């Protein structure tokens, strides 16, 4: 796909133009562009631009909301394409996803869920502003293998730890692996709060989820690599 199409996708997010974002996504699908390329090279860089402009005071909250709307429009076309592959695969594991308490950012988490589904995981998305107790209750109900906790604010990152604490209190910590992510989250932070892994983007989350499933199997059978 020509660079200028990726750049038009990026611009549609910065401009907060859902119609343009949607049309470009449709064109990409029709011309055989891999949906993940469109997301990673076109739309996500647009979100980063928006974040930077917001931080510099060149964009305001309504602009950021319009950009999120444009991203959603593009995803409404690309998401079903990404999911197609997952339906034919055996179940790789059960993952509970959610954005932590106090935080309503959801775009990245939804993308993680889509790619996990496309790679054979059964995903249950609890949405945004989710308490540790809610994560733990759903993990118990679905006998989850992994809990994935997203946080986009430096103020809500610490609530990722409360999810781990809630799993511990519910007596589930030994059977449920925890992966964390979100723009301000780092590997170091993941280690600090005792998470089992950190993923910087949706594809890394899939790789990590596979590794965590392997680890679970090794722990269950007592065989270690
Ligand atoms: Co929001 N916002 N926002 N925002 N927002 C950020 C996050 C800032 C960094 C912008 C900035 O200042 N530069 C900033 C946070 C600063 C900080 O804490 N240090 C910020 C702020 C301040 C705020 C408000 C406080 C603004 C206000 O009200 N004054 C407010 C907070 C509301 C709240 O949550 N309580 C707010 C609101 C909004 C919306 C509603 C307008 C909108 C969200 C809409 C929605 O999600 N439905 C929004 C948006 C869109 C953003 C930016 C621009 C983009 C976020 C995004 O979607 N990125 C963001 C700037 C930025 O992040 N650079 C800005 C694209 C996705 C694909 O990336 O990082 O979310 P991702 O996810 C990746 C990755 O992290 C990983 O995989 C994903 C896919 O590749 N991953 C995981 C994510 N979760 C994972 C979980 C796992 O287990 C594993 C991997």
Topology diagram in text:
Layout: H1 3-14, H2 18-30, H3 35-55, H4 61-84, E1 93-99, H5 107-118, E2 121-125, H6 132-142, E3 146-150, H7 159-169, E4 177-181, H8 187-193, E5 197-198, H9 202-221
Parallel strand pairs: 1-2, 1-3, 3-4, 4-5
Helix pairs in contact: 1-2, 1-3, 2-4, 3-4, 4-5, 5-9, 6-7
The chain binds 5-hydroxybenzimidazolylcobamide.
5-hydroxybenzimidazolylcobamide (HCB) is lined by residues 44, 47-48, 50-51, 54-55, 61, 64-65, 67-68, 102-109, 111-112, 148-150, 152-154, 179-184, 199, 201-202, 205.
Which terms summarize this structure?
Rossmann fold; Methyltransferase, Methionine Synthase (B12-binding Domains), Chain A, domain 1; five-stranded parallel beta sheet; alpha/beta; binds 5-hydroxybenzimidazolylcobamide
Query: How big a fraction of the residues is strand?
Result: 5-15%
CATH topology of the largest domain: Rossmann fold
Characterize the biggest β-sheet.
Answer: 5 strands, parallel
- Could you tell me how far the N terminus lies from the C terminus, measured between alpha carbons in angstroms? 42 Å
